[in-house]
Write a structure and sequence with these properties.
- With 136 residues, the protein is an alpha+beta fold.
- The chain folds into two domains: 46 residues, SH3 type barrels (Roll); 86 residues, Orthogonal Bundle (Arc Repressor Mutant, subunit A), CATH 1.10.10.
- The strands form two sheets. The chain has a five-stranded antiparallel sheet, with no helix packed on it.
Length: 136
């Protein structure tokens, strides 16, 4: 599964998998506990495939950042998102040495590591979508 069906919902913890569209929004399943929720079209929702990280030269899609973490960890889990700010920044610098430290905050790094671990825990290791693989 690609990141195009994985969502983050403002005000709700964790990540969600898009299930079905409804008249007023959509249904999603939590990757944390498997519970289904109804999400209103008015809620602030982001698709992981559309999120990018600032580097000094360009914006790098989140899928590429996850792939770099996956390669570094050989498919295993990354550092805990509960690690100290310094540990998280040092770890992220190993993954992405040219990330923009002025625009990528420690809270962003914490979220990225937490999301990566949640995805791998749920058996999701294919981070790029099919259409971007065909273009390469």
């Amino acid at each position: 599964m690609s990141l195009e069906k994985i969502l983050t919902i403002s005000g709700k913890p964790g990540l969600y998998q898009l299930q079905n569209q409804t008249r007023n929004g959509f249904l999603a399943t939590s990757l944390i506990d498997g519970k289904k929720i109804s999400v209103s079209a008015r809620q602030n929702v982001s698709i992981l495939a559309e999120i990018a990280i600032y580097t000094l030269t360009k914006e790098l899609p989140l899928s590429e950042v996850f792939t770099k973490i996956f390669d570094k960890e050989k498919g295993g889990e990354a550092i805990s998102h509960k690690s100290t700010k310094d540990e998280l920044e040092e770890y992220f610098f190993e993954i992405l040495p040219d990330y923009d430290e002025d625009r990528v905050y420690p809270s962003d790094i914490k979220k990225i590591v937490q999301w990566y671990n949640l995805l791998t825990k749920n058996g999701i290791s294919q981070f790029k979508n099919e259409s971007s693989e065909e273009e390469e």
